[in-house]
Amino acid sequence: MFNLAEPKSRHKALTRNTFCIVVFVLLLVGATTANAGERRFTFTYEAATHAPGDVEYEQWITWKTDKDTDSAFDRIDVRHELEFGITDDFQLALYLSDWRYQRGSSVGDGTEWRDVAIELMYNISDPATESIGFTLYGELKIGDELLELEGKIIAQKNFGKWVFAYNATIEAEWEGSNYSEDKGEFQQTLGGSYQFSPKIFAGFELLHEIEYDDWDTWGDHLLYAGPNASYRADQWWVTVTPLFQLTDSESEANFQLRLIFGIDF
Length: 265
Prior knowledge:
The chain has a single domain (9-264), classed as monomeric porin ompg (Porin). The chain has a twelve-stranded antiparallel beta barrel with strand order 1-2-3-4-5-6-7-8-9-11-12-13. It has one helix at residues 9-28; strands spanning 55-67, 70-85, 90-103, 110-125, 133-143, 146-159, 162-175, 181-195, 200-213, 217-218, 222-232, 236-245, 255-264. The protein is mainly beta. The protein is built from one helix and 13 strands.
């Protein structure tokens, strides 16, 4: 269930070219001084929260592609999010809308609206002033025949220009007309990022997840890994992470890429 495999040759060229193009764009974009809100990772949350009165808009795009059982598979998930700093330690976020486009022989083709959500983050210790930062995260998501609860523990350690963050997440989901289809998921993420300049950051991310069908049977372990890059300007930032599947799950995407673009108000 947790067998490491060589990267799939048929998507190596595609993903390498995609990453190079995105990083090239990041290096060329803008020429202003970087001082926007930080987000070095896309799959891993950092422990710091917004200052009181801060407002930020985030645009998420996640692309998954290439299953061994469905070479034509493509899925694009889009999220529109507003984040608000409430107190020195408390942050609130609203997912204004999540929607999805997908195609392939293993899924239905087309676009569908998914859900809205509310997210709460409470910072216990600040990684900028403490030896290690900790934050508690909670999320409630509601959609068409969908209800989801998520809890997360966020840890962050700063070493000079290096930042390392770890997330442990438990998720419960109910789907169907009577919410009769239920499952759980345990997820871990780890990210490391180095500051090369005031504008440019780069590092890596790891993603491990396992589903618990009907809260009765564990599914296959999934492990993804890849580099990331982030660019910051005065009032905006952009971060991208391409991930490659290292396990050998034929029914899951071999490659996924997430890009998050943020604007500070």
